[in-house]
Amino acid sequence: MSTQCSTSSMRFKSLGGRKVEADFSGGTITSNGGVLLLDRTDAAVGLVDLAARCFTDHRHPERIEHRVPELVRQRVYGLALGYEDLNDHDELSRDPLLAAAVGKTDPTGESRPREQDRGRPLAGKSTLNRLELTKADANASSRYKKVALDFDRMRGVFPELFLRAHRTPPETILLDFDATDDPLHGQQEGRFFHGYYHSYCYLPLYVFCGEHLLAAELRPSDIDASAGSVGVLERLVGHIRSRWPEVQIIVRGDSGFARDEIMTWCEEHGVEYVFGLAKNERLKRELAGELAEAQARWEETGRASRVYKDFVYRTLDSWSRSRRVVGKAEHLDGGPNPRFVVTSLSKAEQPAAVLYEGTYCARGEMENRIKEQQMCLFADRTSTAKMRSNQIRLWFSSLGYVLVSALRRLGLRGTRLARARCDTIRLKLLRIGAAVRVSVRRVWAAMASSFTEQRLFRLVWRRLSKPVAQPQFIPIRC
Hints:
Blueprint: E1 10-15, E2 18-22, E3 29-30, H1 35-45, H2 47-52, E4 55-57, H3 68-81, H4 89-92, H5 96-102, H6 125-133, E5 147-149, H7 151-164, E6 172-179, E7 182-183, E8 192-194, E9 199-202, E10 205-209, E11 212-217, H8 229-241, E12 248-253, H9 260-268, E13 272-276, H10 281-286, H11 288-301, E14 305-313, E15 323-332, E16 335-336, E17 339-343, H12 352-360, H13 364-376, H14 387-411, H15 422-430, E18 434-438, E19 443-447, H16 454-465
Helix pairs in contact: 1-5, 1-14, 1-16, 3-5, 3-14, 13-14
């Protein structure tokens, strides 16, 4: 028997008389076997089809090899699989299983007209770039970049997907508003230094309702954290109430959103709010008695104690009216820790302790969702020169998050991965080795026999193969 050897092989260790070597001659093998689950999820929620309609394609129809839905699907699936850079797609364009999931009728790419493209069924980085770099006023006469995104339509995609995720209207929803930093390392348009974050960055605004992402707006950082919130709120509330006219909407945010403009808008449009309120000397004096009581309890028990106070408060000049404020007088080992929230909810609806501990403090979960999108779906890859293209990148990341979140919600409910982060789901279910065979009648993915999550994969496949029966939204409990 002849010895297999190659000048391109890599030698590792020896096992007795056996050598351990490797090369890249395995043939048509993918490391993205789980993309089939992403495609099933996409079919269930209609994400890519909805997003693709936001683009206008001015390219000549007879010269198009990669249709807009295919490009959007390739970009979103790539992000969900962990390929954050467009450069990754030059090699990823050879993947026949990804091509099949994207919808390519020839997943081998052998029928492409140009010889240099054969064997690459998917688009490369230059073609995908057109989704991000096309100007808003592009038309058929534009030279290269002719696939233009309608920003207003894309903004409507996320609340629409949120509405579709519910079989029946909920009684109450909480819209969490928050801003975060997106560090910049170049000379991007809109780049400013932010004193709080100690870096040059953007200051994107996010809105979540539980796990559901409703808005992701890229903004320069030389603004107030709440800037533009009223416009976003007006658009979301209008979209939601057009379908759920009776739903109670509560807006929640930290003290950066306790602005008279936002609260006044909510009061005028029947929207409730709960915002953190930055402490000052007037507020602390109002809470002096409760702070003394909390300290006395701490001295007696040696344990942290809390005392709440409900009162009516108005700023000296920035608020247009008096509002309900709840103060938390807390004493810890390190000393007093007063905190305040301002709300439109009445005492009857939510008493002070319930309002602070049950409603306001729960907003911390939103920060986990923001971290998930930035760390797992690469929302911070805003490295193009223009804010428009960076906004589009943020939305692609957002679509990737919504897709994996839908997979988690529909396919993983009740399993040990029901609350797993997107990168854990990627590691456990999406990045699977598989040998791919393409024939006239079939694309066959033979996944690794040693894959440890076979039972879970089959369970998710079965759930996503059935008509979608989404769980109902669980309203907050007062």
